[in-house]
Design goal:
186 residues; eight-stranded mixed beta sheet
């Protein structure tokens, strides 16, 4: 059995980004602007209420000391700039699986392939350091860039929740995708 402390072994370093635990100091005006921007939250459950620095600090505090969640800041190596977050939540230590969520919040960081790098770093940590067996996620069927990214890093579709999420133009499906430790090549 591997390390059940999800925040051990940080930062995780990649070619263009590194990941470290999110802290209250990360609750900045930029972070608030991401969560209040309809383009950023278009495919997320967030964005349904107006966020403030204090509401984000409160949200981050909920993660302190938890072993059933890993909440990480995505930091550009160049300039040390916080551009988004990734999390594994919930982590089920008994069955060795977790659900992944990612947000590239900074508009200037989107569309550059950072999501794939961040997910690969997170999966490597989840499988090799934390000893998880499976990581899954849900993605709405209208999030074509997300689906392409998830497939590229090894996720496979294993189910579809028909018309389970309401959008401006009507209901969309949610695809449930996963990758197993023995399938991961990152």
């Amino acid at each position: 059995m591997k390390n059940e402390n999800p925040a051990a072994a940080f930062p995780l370093r990649g070619e263009r980004v590194h990941l470290r635990p999110l802290t209250e100091a990360d609750a900045t005006a930029a972070y608030v602007s991401w969560l209040n921007d309809p383009e950023t939250t278009r495919y997320m459950e967030s964005g349904r209420r107006v966020e403030t620095v204090e509401s984000i600090r409160e949200y981050i505090r909920k993660y302190e000391g938890r072993t059933d969640a890993l909440f990480l800041a995505i930091i550009l190596n160049e300039g040390n700039v916080h551009v988004g977050n990734i999390k594994l939540e919930p982590i089920n230590w008994t069955h060795r699986h977790a659900t992944l969520g990612i947000m590239i919040g900074a508009p200037e960081a989107r569309g550059k392939g950072l999501g794939g790098e961040v997910i690969l770093l997170t999966l490597a940590h989840a499988f090799r350091t934390m000893g998880l067996h499976r990581v899954d996620l849900g993605v709405t069927s209208d999030n074509l860039p997300g689906i392409r990214c998830y497939r590229k890093v090894g996720f496979v579709e294993e189910g579809r929740l028909r018309e389970s999420t309401l959008r401006e133009r009507g209901y969309v499906d949610v695809l449930w995708m996963s990758v197993l430790a023995d399938e991961f090549n990152g």
